[in-house]
């Protein structure tokens, strides 16, 4: 990879942006400088994981109550063609990441996907996302 090539996107993570006040940011930098964390990101990830662990029971109960698929779920063109052949319409409900293969034509997605509810990230072509916009909850 040359230096001018864009950095490949890590499929296991999504970038988020937060705004912090100067005092909070200064305290984070102090902890990093004192060696408690490798960098700002390390502290923020740790804080988020601690909060998720604190609320793990609520997450588990909600996942079960809402019948969410937990983790990463990929829908291939073959998956959607199988659903169409069986006369099934999918209700995609995922906590984590749902992805629809890039080779899925808009028509197939419209025929087979009834609704999409994703808490996390949805990866699909722009054309498929645009076509399904009214079905994305």
TrEMBL record:
Which sequence ranges form a coiled-coil region, renumbered to this chain?
A: none
SUPFAM superfamilies according to UniProt: Ribbon-helix-helix
Lineage top rank: taxon:
Bacteria
User: InterPro entries from the entry?
Assistant: Arc_rbn_hlx_hlx (IPR013321), RHH_8 (IPR041088), Ribbon_hlx_hlx (IPR010985)
Mention one GO biological process in which this protein takes part, according to its record: regulation of DNA-templated transcription
Q: Which Pfam families match?
A: RHH_8
Q: What is this protein called?
A: CopG family transcriptional regulator
């Amino acid at each position: 990879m040359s230096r001018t090539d864009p950095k490949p996107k890590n499929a296991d993570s999504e970038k988020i942006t937060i705004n912090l006040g100067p005092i909070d940011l200064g305290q984070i930098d102090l902890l990093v400088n004192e060696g408690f964390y490798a960098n700002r990101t390390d502290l923020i990830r740790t804080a988020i994981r601690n909060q998720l662990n604190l609320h793990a029971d609520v997450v588990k109960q909600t996942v079960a109550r809402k019948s969410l698929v937990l983790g990463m779920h990929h829908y291939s063109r073959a998956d959607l063609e199988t659903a169409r052949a069986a006369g099934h319409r999918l209700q995609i409900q995922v906590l984590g990441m749902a992805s629809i293969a890039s080779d899925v034509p808009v028509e197939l997605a419209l025929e087979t996907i009834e609704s999409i509810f994703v808490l996390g990230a949805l990866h699909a072509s722009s054309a498929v996302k645009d076509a399904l916009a009214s079905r994305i909850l």
